[in-house]
Specification:
single chain; alpha/beta; Rossmann fold; six-stranded parallel sheet; 12 helices; about 40% helix; globular; hydrolase; Alpha/beta hydrolase; Sec-Metab_Biosynth_Hydrolase
Amino acid sequence: MYRHSRLRRARTPLTLMAAATVATALFATSAGPATAAKSTPSKSGKPTVVLVHGAFADSSSWNGVIKKLKEKGYPVVAAANPLRSLSGDAASVKNLLASIDGPVVLVGHSYGGAVISNAAHGSDNVKALVYADAFLLDKGESANDLASKFPGSVINKVLRPVPIAKPDGSQDVDLYIDQSKFHQAFGADVPAKTADLMAVTQRPGTGTALNEPSGEPAWKTIPSWALVGSNDQIIPRDAQLYMAKRAHAHIKEIKSSHAVSVSHPGAVTRIIEKAARTVR
């Protein structure tokens, strides 16, 4: 035992030196988007599906969709949307897209729709856009503008603002949905126990993000599909149809709450597949 422990201690400095060397190499290769490691193209020949969640959710909201896509052989990436500002969130997703070799089907839910419209602008590997109960903003519009353009949204009745300070010292708010109202407002067709977990783990969007005007949207040049939830109480059906028709998107309606990726992962997967089949 004594000799073994001495040998193990003797190797420790070498192990630390090796780890430091590896860490240095990794740091050097992660200095910026231009040096980011490229992902391996799919052997299946299918495009990579990149999923972008919206406010009051996180990447786990795609779990049912991810499972179905993986079973069908699609490579999948679920982006961690920062939810801090529309321009910043779009830049984060754009950098992720740049790390992926081969064609991409880019999918957004809710506010994530605004993010993908901006992130895909100028991203040549994005071949199709899919909006699931999502915003398809035009240049100069904000998520808050379109949520209130048509009657039916309860969003302003259920939000709980938490004051925060931005890095520059100015003030902002983190916006949460009141946990006691989350099930009915966000996911009425989701099992109550699941909705309760979603309410607790929700990630807030800032007031800045939800009010920041969009840049030039990619749906003007990239083919788009829209899954419209007719029972959505966050982005009303009429608002979704208005945006989807304006974008000349391929539209599919479904009786769903706003949490369509959780309550109807099969329908979300099917519309993603329709978009993916057009990618060559």
